[in-house]
Amino acid sequence: MPFAPADRLSSPQNPRIKQLLKLQQKSAERRALGLTLVEGLRELTIAVEAGVAVAAIYTCPELAGEKGLADLQNLFADASTAPEWFEVTRPVFEKVAYREGSDGLLAVLRTPTRTLADLRLPANPLLIVLEAVEKPGNLGAILRTADAAPVDAVLIGDPRTDLFNPNVIRASIGCVFTVPTVAAPVADILAFLKEKGIRSYAAALAPESKNYSEHDFRGPTALVMGTEADGLTPHMRAACDETIIIPMRGRIDSLNVSVATAVLTFEAVRQRR
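RESULT FIELD:
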């Protein structure tokens, strides 16, 4: 199937360019249209291989180079229907690109929709639960951990950031598409864990907290993490089965939430092996 640019866009006033800027900057626009942006061939490849639908592609030949354009064509070589493809001049592309050192490729994706009911978990699942996550960089880093470990799903209760914020996609290197990830009200997530018989472990600095290495994570497990600034809410902590802590041996009393999540997740994976 032929796959080549349909047009060349050179004006920042072009309606398509204006929409790209809105999708980049406004979560309300992304939600209303059911679209999001991904920049970079690696991230786009991961999304396509995960079955995410691509609505349109924008490339800057000067930045992508012959190899980048050839790799893009190969990515859709066997597709029955290819997305629209537009070339963009370098000044205009640099206006819509959202990261430094761009490889000259920007794609518009149809945002995947996922619910708790969609999850198909194994008999002995390992989950990460995040309460009110607010920083795209932290969420992206946690999704990379979830993919690498791997975990069976990431559940995000009452998120304060858009799950498909372009910066989440960038920070996760596309792992937001490889890991089953669901945003839902905290109450629904707690009910889901109880229904599935999944034991929950709240990571929190509290008098009742016990060293994480003293716990057995070999059964159905949910590692529950709070925000960087405030940690878990009292309600969430009280709803969990156990409270755990990573002992701090230095002068600070906590780790970045993405680092703490990685420590706990890989300990759970180690025990399971």
